[in-house]
Fold this sequence. Notes:
Number of domains: 1
CATH class: Alpha Beta
Shape: globular
InterPro entries: IolE/XylAMocC-like, TAT_signal, Xyl_isomerase-like_sf, Xyl_isomerase-like_TIM-brl
Radius of gyration: 20 Å
Protein name: Sugar phosphate isomerase/epimerase
Domain Xylose isomerase-like TIM barrel: 51-270
CATH architecture: Alpha-Beta Barrel
Keywords: Isomerase, Signal
CATH superfamily: Divalent-metal-dependent TIM barrel enzymes
Distance between the termini: 40 Å
Mean pLDDT: 91
Number of helices: 12
Strand content: 15-25%
CATH topology: TIM Barrel
GO molecular function: isomerase activity
Amino acid sequence: MTTRRSFLKTSALLSAGLLAAPNLFAYDKKYIGLQLYTVRDAMAADPVAALAKVAKTGFTSVEGATYTGTELFYGMRPGDFANVLKQNGLIMPSAHYRLGEELVNGEQQKGTIMNDWKKAVDDAAEAGVQYMVCAYLSQSERGNLDHYKNVANMLDIAGETCKGAGIQLCYHNHDFEFIQENGKYPYEILLENTDKDLVKMEMDLYWVNKANQDPIALIDKHPGRFPLWHVKDMDKTPEKKFTEVGNGVIDFKKIFTQAKKSGLKYFFVEQDVCPGDPFVSIAQSISYIKKNLV
């Protein structure tokens, strides 16, 4: 028979085990995030006012979309930007970066994985960033499957640098990673040729669906590999345009049942193109999310 002492001992051991394995928990539902690319014009014009408006709309976290390698997040130093976030009750657990293999005006881009990455990592740490995400590969950065293996190696190296600062590196997909070559998807190459602890994935649910892939099948095949999601909907037209969350064809309710298996920690609403005022669109999206997903 279980005694009170043995019960308390077992409970303490269980609690310690759970604390040591945070992936057993689902994401924190108090954080509803916005990828700031959605309100990029407002952020460019007046980032302080834009962040206040984002918070007033109901969002509690944001994902950065602009870092130029000059110690600045939207024109502010990392610590100053973190203070603005705090004043508005926001956190920025994640931010986007570029690979940097493509030359711009004949020069490498600073603050990228391939150029001055350690400085980018240090700035991210000061700003409170937990996830640094390789956001996009330009046309010249894609190449064939062998080149994707080289990209995977670069991601591993960058992930080691991130790890040293207590940050997790991720890779954000579009649909071009699902164009087959010799029966293989580039996305598979990235998943299979990167260290699963050094490089995780930010799954963009719109682009996965547009590429006719099943996000749940990807989660089943690679559990725990997707701590970040972009919650972005696809409209019902043949063009498959961006639309507000809940206004399109993606079954978010079904996908969110797999949040724990995915390893989800944070998700971010993103709408690359809005039909009018982006703040009207994000208000519609967050209303749907609060009523149906969290």
